[in-house]
Each structure stands twice: as C-alpha cells, then as structure tokens.
Specification:
The protein is built from eleven helices and no strands. By secondary structure, it is mainly α. Residues 215-229 have low confidence and may be disordered.
Length: 229
C-alpha cells in the first residue's frame, strides 16, 4: 500500500509538469500564429495605404492563409481589403467574391458595400449594385465611391437632380475615388448640371473633367454594363 502510494506521489508531479508543457506549447503556438497574421496584416495595410495593390493583395492572402482560422483576428478586414485591392486592379468579379465573404461576416461595412456595389455595376448586376450602394450611403453618407456609382445609375433612370447630388458628393470626396473615376464623376456632374439649367456649373465641371489625367473608368464601363440590363 505504501509502495503504491509512493509511486503515485512520484507520478503526480511528472504528470502535472507534462500537462504544463503541453498547454504552454499550445499557447506559444497560438501566439506565434497570431503574430504571423498580425505581421502580414500590417504589411498589407502599409501596401494598401501606398496604393501598391499587388503587394497588398499578396500580404492579405498571406494573412488569410494562417491556419486554423480561429487564431486570426483580422479575417473580415483581410477579405474586405483584398476585395478592394482586386477592385483597384480591375478584377471586379474576384473583388465581389472577397467582398461577399467580408460582408457575410459583417454586413454593415459601408466601404465594402460601396466597392461591391460599383464592382457589381461594372459586371452588369445593376439591381444588386443599387441595393449595395443605397445601403452603403445609408450607413455612411461619406462614401464617395458609392455616390459616384449611384450617380451613374440615377443618370440612366433620368433622375438628373439625384444624379447631380450624388455626383457633387463624389467629387467633394475625390480622394476616395480610384484612379480613373474622378473625371467621369466630373463629367456626370456637368451633364446633370446642364440638365438642371446650371450652365456655369456644367462648364466648371466639364473643365475639371478635362483637367484630369485619367479619363477612363466608371463612365465607359458603367455605360457598357447598364446597356445589358
């Protein structure tokens, strides 16, 4: 009896130490994975802020590759910002796929809704685009990209006053618009102002559009998409 008791007293500390080591190893592994994801996410954010879309896309993909998924802290924003990176690279269908994943996790991300709305517009899904753009602007009236996209849709339905209001909101927030989208927004503002009888406003917006170095983007693509709806 004493021998058995003695053996048990010897084994208990050993078992406790083994458990501590196992738990400690699991915690260390968990923290290491989180640190890896955080490092990739930070690198992605820096690339995104600099407009280096390919580098941002790769870094967000690296963050999303950290496995298992439950250790990740930035999954929603990784999908949202990778989707936006695809958008800036002109890969609109892939943008929609990533933005769907982000919005399935957090439905009230106004920037993601704005990007998805315009991406849907540019891929011919006008009805879903309008729903996204309306919701984005309901959540955050300061979403310039959503205003630009909705302005084009209002123009197509003949609502010049709404088109002008949205176009004005878009150009006020010019810094939010992707390359190639500002000139079409000015052009739309000029057209809407002309329809509203504001000749001076139309001429000023037309001059601003012509002054922009990049004049392609939303105008041509949206016209093509809307022509098929």
């Amino acid at each position: 009896m004493e021998t058995r008791s003695r053996r048990r007293s010897l084994w208990l500390p050993i078992a406790a130490a083994a458990i501590v080591l196992l738990v400690g190893g699991a915690v260390a592994g968990f923290l290491a994975l989180r640190a890896t994801e955080a490092r990739h996410y930070q690198a992605a954010g820096e690339a995104y802020a600099a407009g280096e879309w390919d580098r941002a896309l790769n870094a967000y993909s690296a963050a999303l590759s950290v496995y298992p998924p439950f250790v990740r802290q930035h999954t929603t924003l990784c999908y949202a910002n990778r989707g936006a990176s695809f958008f800036h690279l002109g890969q609109y269908e892939r943008a929609v796929a990533d933005l769907d994943l982000a919005l399935s996790r957090q439905a009230d991300l106004a920037p993601a809704l704005a990007y998805r709305g315009v991406a849907r517009l540019l891929t011919g899904d006008a009805q879903a685009a309008r729903e996204d753009l309306d919701l984005a602007l309901d959540l955050d009236p300061g979403q310039g990209l959503a205003s630009a996209g909705r302005a084009w849709m209002c123009r197509e339905t003949g609502d010049a006053a709404a088109a002008l209001a949205d176009a004005e909101d878009a150009v006020v927030r010019a810094g939010q618009l992707p390359a190639g989208f500002l000139a079409p927004a000015y052009a739309l503002k000029a057209e809407a102002a002309l329809s509203d009888g504001d000749m001076d406003g139309a001429l000023g917006a037309a001059d601003a559009a012509l002054a922009e170095p990049e004049r392609a983007g939303l105008a041509q693509s949206a016209d093509r998409a809307l022509a098929h709806t």
